[in-house]
Amino acid sequence: MSPITLNEIPDELKEFIGDIKSLTFPRQGWTSDVGILETTSGAFYALKRTKETLYNTWLEKEVDVLHTLCTETKLPVPQVRKFLAESSKNQSWALMDFLDGETLRTALFNETNLEKRRELIYNFGQILGEIHSTPCPGSLKHGEPWLDNMLLKAEYNFKCHNVDGTRDILDSIKANKPDKFKQTLIHGDYTIDNVLVHNGVISGVIDWSGGAYGDPRYDTALAVRPKPYAFQNEEDNTLFFKGYGSRIITNSDYDYFVNGLYEFF
């Protein structure tokens, strides 16, 4: 069954899109349905639909972050064209420009040239370094420290939603916070599935619902989690941090963010 059917797309969005020639689907995530629309006039859009209150909130947050980044930075992110919340159906829609490319996960899987593969890993780190060195827009800065806010959200998600984290893990990350670190603009879910590659070059960074003024160690920790065909060895880690500019996390930082905090999101 298709994640999204043409009949499900709200009329308000169809009026903006125009006549649809095709609707195809990339690899799907857990929190949303995503389709790629091609119109009869040759335009391409990415259409994202969420269901349930938690994921609808994330999509609305992503739309706000993308509006800000498109206006105030030069980062390679998609521009949102339309956002629609259907409260009666407890679902939300975002229509945004389609960025050419395949995910870095797919690019690494298909790349047989070892030097080109190394270059992709290096550039994956380099782009994250550019994100972290980009001045954070004021609208993304809030009064409370990012980690304190994330721990409050973790507590809420543990009580109200189905998460992988346990009470023991939650108590541990609340009691054993890492040393403070200079906050920067962060992505919030920087993984090989959220970076696009076109003709061997990184063409975009997507899925910005976690975008914030926060701890850059969180991004680097999520980035180097072992995945099939990526970060299964120390060479990938070394290349990534060489591209990034420095190795800013310790083993204990990695464990705190990946095996602790991330379990609640």
From TrEMBL:
Location of the Aminoglycoside phosphotransferase domain: 24-225
Keyword Magnesium set for record: no
Keyword list, A-Z: Transferase
Stored Pfam families: APH (PF01636)
InterPro entries: AGP_Transferase (IPR051678), Aminoglycoside_PTrfase (IPR002575), Kinase-like_dom_sf (IPR011009)
GO molecular function, one term: transferase activity
Protein name per its UniProtKB record: Aminoglycoside phosphotransferase APH(3')
Source species taxonomy: Bacteria, Bacillati, Bacillota, Bacilli, Bacillales
